[in-house]
Amino acid sequence: MIDGTALGGFPEYLAKQEAVLIGTVENEQLESDVAYYLHARGELALGEYDRSEERFIPKRTVESDSSIMSDTVQALLESGVEVTLSPIGEALNDAARLSGDDVLGKKQAHVYALREIYGFSRGEAATVLNISPSTVDSQLYSARDRKNSAESFVDTLDEIVSEMN
């Protein structure tokens, strides 16, 4: 389970609220709002973290056409506000890039970015994504398989091109 903090001491994961820290945002009053993805609501919300009660108080949500985590991070980044991403937010941003060319599906890209690029454990990735550890394993296996197939294709293409020259 994720029990660390990031970005000035905000908890990375709030178990009672099933909330994952995505980042901080400068609001209109030039104060920082904290951004958490709320699994129960399937949305990214901006608000305050109440340190005395150890809970996130949502003020508003980020408009997104999707409840997929990486899509909501992209919507936040495209909203025109100044955003500082947490390590989880960075991983989800990279997952959006990985799935953008359709080589990896979104779930595979989420798991691959968290596990292979950012070094989150199996359990941490499961917690962040609100999926079972066995689903993390199967998505990672599929992502690695797709990556290996793409590398094999590029190698074969390189051989063909070099044989022509």
UniProtKB/TrEMBL annotation:
<dbReference type="Pfam" id="PF08281">
    <property type="entry name" value="Sigma70_r4_2"/>
</dbReference>
<feature type="domain" description="RNA polymerase sigma factor 70 region 4 type 2">
    <location>
        <begin position="105"/>
        <end position="145"/>
    </location>
</feature>
<dbReference type="InterPro" id="IPR013324">
    <property type="entry name" value="RNA_pol_sigma_r3/r4-like"/>
</dbReference>
<dbReference type="InterPro" id="IPR013249">
    <property type="entry name" value="RNA_pol_sigma70_r4_t2"/>
</dbReference>
<protein>
    <submittedName>
        <fullName>RNA polymerase sigma factor</fullName>
    </submittedName>
</protein>
<dbReference type="InterPro" id="IPR036388">
    <property type="entry name" value="WH-like_DNA-bd_sf"/>
</dbReference>
